[in-house]
From TrEMBL:
Domain of life: Eukaryota
One term of GO molecular function: enzyme inhibitor activity
Ranges for domain Pectinesterase inhibitor: 36-184
Name of the molecule in the record: Pectinesterase inhibitor domain-containing protein
Recorded coiled-coil stretches: none
Pfam families to which the protein is assigned, alphabetical: PMEI
Keyword terms: Signal
Ranges annotated as spanning the membrane: none
């Protein structure tokens, strides 16, 4: 029997709050656009879709359409903060699932998944700092490392004796968000 795990209302609230705060923080700290970096969301999403077809142009536009700026630098910050919010929400949901799980093998899988997302959040927060400082090469590397979280989480449920159902928040949207941020940062290098 396969379980389908959904975001709890508290996880959704925190994800929505983090997304709202990230968009507002970018608008408060946005830099004046330059000729080299001015673009719009649709142009940025074309870059993303070309670099990572699995992300998809429509997903990118839907994610970034409410961004207050079309500047690639600011879009990179919004995309990264959105990925952080998603990963942090996944962490919260996984913690709740660990507390509900009674089987030790499944708890072990959830623990490994939780560790992967905690590492990803830390790396992406460091990437935000580097994007803000315009150290794009380092930010791109950190975002690349952070994309491994979804793969590590999935492996925790498919490798060896690990059991349990892959948590819904650990699905493909996180990977799409992290790759979207990475593609925008790469375009800034």
């Amino acid at each position: 029997m396969q379980r389908i795990l959904l975001f709890s209302s508290s996880s959704f609230f925190f994800f929505s709050l983090a997304l709202f705060l990230s968009v507002n923080q970018v608008s408060a700290t946005s830099h004046p656009p330059t000729c080299a970096s001015t673009t719009n969301v649709k142009d940025a999403c074309k870059l993303v879709a070309d670099k990572y077809p699995a992300v998809g142009y429509d997903f990118c536009v839907k994610t970034l359409k409410k961004s207050p700026s079309g500047d690639l630098h600011d879009l990179a910050l919004v995309a990264t903060r959105t990925a952080i919010a998603h990963a942090a929400s996944a962490e919260s949901e996984i913690e709740e699932l660990i507390n509900l799980e009674t089987e030790s093998a499944a708890k072990s899988s959830f623990d490994k998944c939780l560790d992967a997302y905690a590492d990803a959040v830390e790396r992406m927060r460091n990437a935000v700092d580097n994007i803000a400082a315009r150290v794009y090469k380092k930010a791109e590397q950190q975002l690349g490392d952070a994309t491994a979280a979804a793969k590590k989480c999935k492996a925790a449920f498919t490798d060896g004796n690990n059991k349990g159902a892959l948590p819904a928040p650990a699905g493909s949207d996180y990977l799409k968000l992290a790759n979207m941020a990475r593609a925008i940062v790469v375009s800034l290098e």
